[in-house]
Design brief:
mainly alpha, 6 helices, elongated, transmembrane, transmembrane helix
Length: 157
């Protein structure tokens, strides 16, 4: 029941972000959807096992941490930094499992999934704030774009 509630909550957040979000919010929706799809495919072929290092979820978590870190680096928003941290934390679970094989399987599972519950409300709030900026007429870029033209030139050059 808990998993169904989480997936429903996540799908609402992803749908809202895809429908009303800016570029970073839509990118986060795509990242999360990719991770959920990869998780479903993993469980279709590999039984869930938390008694040893879970290499399938490690791969999914590495993708999530890398993708959200890149999002945080290029998005002209603050919230992707928080989401990147939330996706890096499960890597600590895998590291803990790798270093200490005596960690309880329930603790390993909790360390992997607990932070994911914070992603949907952050994404909903980020999309709502984006809509508020648009309603106020604020013009804020979605992405940091480096270019030589954006560097002011001085008269001495």
């Amino acid at each position: 029941m808990r998993m169904a509630f989480f997936l429903a909550f996540l799908l609402v957040a992803l749908g809202y972000a895809a429908w009303r979000g800016g570029g970073p919010e839509r990118a986060m929706a795509a990242i999360a959807l990719t991770m959920v799809g990869a998780d479903k495919m993993l469980h279709a072929f590999v039984p869930v096992e938390f008694a040893s290092l879970d290499t399938g979820h490690l791969a999914i978590d590495l993708f999530g941490a890398t993708a959200t870190t890149l999002l945080a680096l290029f998005a002209h928003r603050f919230w992707p930094m928080c989401v990147a941290v939330l996706h890096i934390l499960p890597l600590l679970a895998h590291t803990s499992r790798f270093l200490d094989v005596e960690i309880h399987p329930a603790a390993y599972l909790t360390m992997q999934v607990a932070t994911s519950w914070l992603v949907p409300p952050i994404l909903i709030l980020a999309t709502w704030r984006h809509q508020r900026r648009l309603a106020r007429g604020d013009s804020e870029p979605s992405w940091y774009i480096s270019s030589r033209r954006s560097i002011p030139r001085t008269a001495n050059r």
